[in-house]
Design goal:
The chain is of the alpha/beta class and 114 residues long. 31% of the residues lie in helices and 28% in strands. The protein has a single domain, classed as Macrophage Migration Inhibitory Factor. It has 2 helices and 4 strands, in the order E-H-E-E-H-E. Keywords: Isomerase.
Length: 114
C-alpha cells in the first residue's frame, strides 16, 4: 500500500537519474521497518514548468502516502531516512523535501486484478 510519489525538476534530475533514486528510496523506506518492501509502490513525475520561491531552482519533493496507524516516531524515522537518501543521491539539487501523509483506511479503496 505505501506510495512514494516523487515530483522533480526535469531539467535538473532527469529521467536518466530518477530510476536509481526511486530504487534507493524504496530500499531506504523498507530498511526503516515502517513498511514492507513488497508493498511499496514508487512513481516519479518530472516537471518542465515550475518555480521554487519565484525562481527556476532545482527540486525533488517526495510525498509518502501511508494508511494511518504509524506513530509520530515511525513517521519521523521514515522521513529522516528518506531525506538522507535524497541528500546522498541528489547532492546537486537545491531543494529536497519529504512529506509523510496519512490516508484514511476507511476511505481508501483498491482493486487488484487477479
Amino acid at each position: 500500500m505505501p506510495h512514494l510519489v516523487i515530483d522533480y525538476s526535469g531539467d535538473h534530475l532527469g529521467r536518466d537519474r530518477v530510476a536509481a533514486v526511486m530504487e534507493q528510496l524504496a530500499i531506504a523506506a523498507a530498511a526503516t521497518g515502517v513498511m514492507n518492501a513488497a508493498d511499496i509502490k514508487v512513481r516519479a513525475r518530472g516537471f518542465d514548468d515550475y518555480l521554487v520561491a519565484g525562481r527556476r531552482d532545482s527540486f525533488v519533493h517526495l510525498a509518502v502516502y501511508l494508511l494511518s496507524g504509524r506513530t509520530p516516531e515511525q513517521k519521523e524515522t521514515l522521513s529522516i531516512a528518506l531525506r538522507r537518501t535524497l541528500v546522498e543521491h541528489c547532492p546537486d539539487i537545491t531543494s529536497l523535501s519529504v512529506d509523510i501523509r496519512d490516508m484514511d483506511p476507511v476511505a481508501y479503496k483498491k482493486r487488484l486484478k487477479a
